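User: Fold this, then the next.

Assistant: Folding the first:
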Amino acid sequence: MQKLRCVVERITYQNPENGYSVMRVKVKGYDELVTLVGNLLEVPAGSVLLCEGDWKVDKRYGSQFVAQIWEEVMPATLYGIEKYLGSGLVKGIGPKFAQLIVNRFGLDTIEIIETDIERLYEVPGIGRKRVEKIAESWEKQKDIKNVMLFLQGYGVSTAYAAKIYRQYGKESIDTVKTNPYKLADDIWGIGFKTADTIASKMGYEKNDLRRLKSGVTYTLSHMAEEGN
């Protein structure tokens, strides 16, 4: 697989159910925007992505980079930070306040929001309610990213990770760690075999009671479907 670092300029299409997206991205060394496709959940315009995948040529849409693995990284330029914050990703910050915040804190902007958010009061026009909204939205985005990275580490596709996060929210990591077989009961499309693969990668033993219980349920359900 090849690597591609890019800035999302605009989103052409995004499926809210599975995260499948078509994006136009800016890539260093390319004069024109590049088409990026893949299951890119919760990725707004302005995001900086590090993707792994392969190039393909679509008969209808031309050259595309198909992302198999991706992670969001923080922008490293003033332009990138301003675009990232002004994209609508962080509630309470639009293009106007993104510019004001970056003008005040420069390249330290992301660190300020992450570690000392009350300094946003130094920016003209930002009051308590707006800072609270920004803080809440920033934490939510961190939760989503942490969950996605955790699940991807165990081979869970972005499409399934999206469903898991919608089901369990910020409790996703603890829920999956405690009993990955619960996924087979709660998440449509994830069966016993998929849950068992995840559990195996997490170090669960074959004789674990949670596995045995889920396996019995799966077997009985399978038999019922066959009319036994």
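Now the next one, as you asked:
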Amino acid sequence: MPRINIQQTIDQGKLNKFFSLVYIICIFIVIFDGYDMNIFGPITPLLMEDLHLNAAQTGLLASYALYGMLVGSIVFGVFADKIGQKKAIMIGIVVYGLFTGLTGHANTPTMLGICRFIAGFGIGGVVPNVIAYVTEFTPKANRGTMTSWVSIGINFGAILAAGLSILFLQKFGWRFMFWIAYLPIIIVLLIHFFLPETMISYYRKGNKAKIQETLQRANADYIPSADDEFVLDHAEVSKVPLVSLFKDGFARNTILVWICYFMNLYMTFGINTWLPKLMMAKGYPLGNSLWLLLIFNTGTIIGTTFGAWAAPKYGYKKIIIAYYAVGAILICLLSIKFSFAMLGVILFIIGAIVLGINSMFNSYVSLCYPVTFRSTALGCGLGIGRLGGAAGPIIGGFLLVANVPMFFNFLAFAIPAVLGAIAIFATIDYTKTLTAKSAATDQDLKAAGH
């Protein structure tokens, strides 16, 4: 009776139509998630005027989606373990698509805040499960590249939000920009008909026929047999308590990593929310301000690509610290009145840096912890980061209400870059420490004559 290791069979497959279909559908899911996360910034000036909101109230409303994401990522994480990632993703899409669309019907700040929180709840459950799903259904040789580019889909969603705002916001109003989010619900049909359940779901149900069918699509070398016996490696789903992050010398890394996550998303969502309004305060019309937001988000393509090449070659800490330092200086420069073209260049570089850090940081964090609780570290860090993402719009709004000099509005987004650089400088690369210990042990054994 042949014993078939399910994950190894998928790992040994080659990139084909099946894997491409999984990737294309999942990248569209994440792009629309990115649209939802970032649409609040472009519509902020018109929203404030229509609902008679001040900047502090608007900042609070912008943060509600981030709080919803924090709760959603926890709830859907448990939910997915019970019903499968495919169903969890479908439910999350319906929730965020429906309630983002309903946000466009809100006539009061209270209704708008409730809709944004529930939409964020749905988003929080989609992105982590999509990344885990793509990780499972990608050949091992292509896994790093495919999962990285799925994550970057969030940034493409931000570009989409800015681009569609340029086309439609002034013509159709802020409500229409939320109604666009009804469209992703259609993707649920594509997921239902074209994507398989996760293999662990089929395995638990004892659905041998579906396992064989999916493995055939994933690996042309697999030939099903009536005698096949399937095994699934559960080593990667072992549950490690949160306390592991604070034991055996890892408390230092955990606190510093959480600081970085907080600062990273503070800058990302703070700038995305308030950039159009700040540019209008500097004398640029709304149309130009939306173009500047688009330029800012487009920078991620260069920042992420360069970081993915440079960080492994020269060291993640060095490259990320350099990003932080240059970003802090350029953000402060935004308070100076430049020509539109020069301002566009500066914002493109800032976008490359701020959004590029987000893409690199998860990879660096994986070096700071052993594999046994690396997922726990990443999940908790992203949760803390969402608190930072909620704080950015709030603090930016209060500063606008306080009518402080323009320099201080931008300084509020530059200081986190400095704090992030200090925090990552103090972290310890676990893999290097492990290598050093191994080398020391080898020397001791040699000295002892072994």
